[in-house]
Design goal:
Elements lengths: L2 H10 L1 H17 L5 H5 L5 H14 L23 E11 L4 H14 L3 E10 L6 E11 L3 H9 L3 E11 L1 H27 L3 H33 E10 L12 H40 L1
Parallel strand pairs: 1-5
Antiparallel strand pairs: 1-4, 2-3, 3-5
């Protein structure tokens, strides 16, 4: 086979040749890889490398910008449970007394040292059909929770009441454990930073320390927020003014009466034309019967 023929054969089987070349390159480069610590540049001692390796393995579970996902364990070993409570309460107030009811609600919030987080009031309808409604979100001390609910129930007639309690003990415990672990990791980074001699090592560790401090700040804020959910409960109140008893009463228009009269007449005509053939048939049968009988 000539060189020209061989070249033509390779061109026809270019895909196979590409696969072979790729395999050769993979084998060559895989055999010349340097150890991980050489590629990283090292930190000057084997003990430091061990700490960094352990830290890197731990960071796989929580990389910068990512935060832990907690399991569904309810922490049965903890006796002091962490319970969050929330309530949705709806009341209907007498017509014309909405503003008075709203003032009473705000007075309860103030006297119990609670917090009115959100309020939204609006007017529906026009003229005599108009009525007011409002939604309010309140944060109350859990110790005063039951007493405040009883006071709020006295505002108008309760139309609906829904209470929800959630055990977040496991979430709280997991946050505390995670925070302690991250603080311990930060201590190791700080120790390594003091012992490091190379400027590149210090820069790398400084970045890790910054990321670690950010993670710890996030966990501390999460722990604080979780604790506040236990210390303060949420109450959502909906107030609605009673609508007028005459809201759906209206005099029928003359045009409506005419329309109904025409509709009735049309229905009567339809009935006549449906029944008429049967009536004529029955009359014919009766006449024939009389004639035969005579």
């Amino acid at each position: 086979m000539t060189l020209k023929n061989q070249w033509e054969t390779i061109k026809e089987n270019w895909l196979i040749a590409l696969v072979v070349v790729s395999l050769v390159l993979v084998i060559l480069f895989s055999g010349s890889r340097a150890p991980l610590y050489e590629m990283m540049g090292g930190f000057g001692s084997s003990s430091q490398m061990g700490i960094v390796a352990n830290s890197m393995m731990a960071e796989k579970a929580m990389a910068p910008g990512m935060y832990p996902i907690y399991n569904e364990d309810f922490a049965p070993q903890v006796e002091e449970r962490k319970i969050t409570k929330s309530v949705s309460l709806g009341s209907e107030v007498k017509r014309g007394s909405f503003k008075e009811a709203e003032t009473q609600l705000k007075s309860i919030v103030t006297s119990t040292d609670s917090y009115l987080l959100n309020e939204n009031t609006w007017k529906s309808g026009q003229g005599k059909e108009a009525y007011f409604s409002g939604n309010y979100q309140i944060k109350v001390d859990t110790k005063k929770y039951d007493a405040i609910i009883e006071q709020l129930k006295q505002i108008g007639e309760v139309t609906f009441f829904s209470e929800n309690a959630q055990d977040i003990t496991a979430q709280f415990e997991n946050l505390e454990i995670e925070l302690a672990a991250e603080k311990e990791r930060l201590k190791r980074y700080l120790q390594m930073y003091e012992e490091a001699k190379d400027i590149d090592d210090k820069i790398n560790l400084n970045d890790r320390i910054f990321s670690q401090e950010r993670t710890i700040k996030y966990l501390e804020d999460s722990l604080k927020s979780t604790g506040e959910k236990v210390e303060y409960s949420t109450i959502s109140v909906s107030l609605t003014e009673k609508q007028s008893d005459y809201v759906n009463i209206a005099i029928v228009k003359f045009s409506e009466l005419v329309r109904r009269l025409i509709d009735s007449f049309n229905s009567l005509l339809s009935l006549i034309f449906v029944v008429l053939p049967y009536a004529l048939a029955a009359l014919a049968v009766w006449l024939v019967y009389r004639k035969i009988k005579k």
